[in-house]
């Protein structure tokens, strides 16, 4: 009998981590003889949800056991969630969804919506009832959306892997002791089989988070084997409590799939929008760059915010008339900004000619002439020559910007955003199968 177990919203801004609960459950369920039919999954959902904690991640455990063990598995899961969630903390509403058998179309459809939509809890409850799943909540029912979304997102297409190592409890909240030079070496040795490990533009490690949560580091890559290989290249100066390899939708652009041009532009949702640059981009205090994108239904403001690094220079070099596709999340209108696309990447299809207008050249001395006044032509101060019929000259300026795909610096990438090195490595098919390598300890 298959059981698909989704868990969400166990952490808070003060710490905790839903993947840590999953890692502990891997150990506990293995000890009682439970068989895993897939690596545990980390499922990133709509990254534009305003009330998420960090990366809006839920987890799914997919196991197989005989019917007599079902109650023990459920009891083990609920006990772990109750013991290690931040229950009672504002904004923390843990939820568990347990489905018997493979997820049917209603659950899979709900999971697809959860990647890009804002779904009310009542919709999740209706789907849970219709498919015969069971659920438990602690606090509000908000966590049901993520837990059910994780159950239904079986990653049958493109997917990646992440090895997550966890700290001992007494070290949480202290600086992580991970050797930076070894991370650089690992990145150079394994890219593009791994991705988003080190940001050389900003000289910043990306494998280590910065909060008080129990995660020591996370390594993302194309296979379970390569993330384990990369893990062994990193020098770590503190004890590791445990580590687990997850299968995930990190770096797959999953939130940008299945978006249609006919859909309304709405806040807190991702968007893929083709259009024409309507004005010259403007840079404001703080380094943010804004421009207007004209599309078939009107226009909308686009923004490349300061953390995106050199990507802002690409955006700033756009000109009115350039044809692009904008990828990003729609930010809600507020007193400071109208409805705005927070750019995750842009695809430049065509760039217009850039023209420079200059005063004509003096026929005698070869210097630029000056205007003699409206309708009076031009004159040369040096030679005292006036040419009434002279006009400004138009010169074509070579643009350095070329058509192509442009993404921000790695530190500004969202978890779901596909990095450049993954293009061409997308996986087409994946059936549930048991983990095939060393994938957790203990």
General description of the model:
The chain is an alpha+beta fold. The chain folds into four domains: 2-154, Alpha-Beta Plaits (2-Layer Sandwich), CATH 3.30.70; 160-248, Glycinamide Ribonucleotide Synthetase, Chain A, domain 4, CATH 3.90.600.20; 254-353 and 399-417, OB fold (Dihydrolipoamide Acetyltransferase, E2P), CATH 2.40.50.1010; 354-397. Helices cover 19% and strands 29% of the residues. It is built from eight helices and 25 strands. The chain has helices at 18-31, 70-84, 105-114, 121-130, 143-152, 180-190, 224-231, 311-316; strands at residues 2-8, 35-36, 41-44, 57-64, 95-100, 134-137, 160-167, 194-195, 198-199, 204-205, 215-221, 240-248, 270-277, 282-283, 289-295, 298-304, 323-331, 340-350, 354-358, 370-371, 378-380, 385-387, 393-397, 404-406, 440-441. The strands form five sheets. Strands 1, 2, 3, 4, 5, 6, 7, 8, 11, 12 and 25 form an eleven-stranded mixed sheet that branches. Strand 21 (378-380) and strand 22 (385-387) form a beta hairpin. The protein is elongated and about 100 Å long. It starts with a strand and ends with a strand.
Report the uncertain regions: none
Count the DSSP helices: 8
CATH fold descriptor of the largest domain: Alpha-Beta Plaits
**Could you say what the CATH architecture of the largest domain is?**
2-Layer Sandwich
Report strand %: 25-35%
Mean pLDDT rating: 92
Radius of gyration: 27 Å
What structural class is derived from the secondary structure elements?
Answer: alpha+beta
Helix content: 10-25%
How many β-strand runs? 25
The main β sheet shows up as:
11 strands, mixed
**CA-based shape:** elongated
Distance between the termini: 25 Å
Number of structurally distinct domains: 4
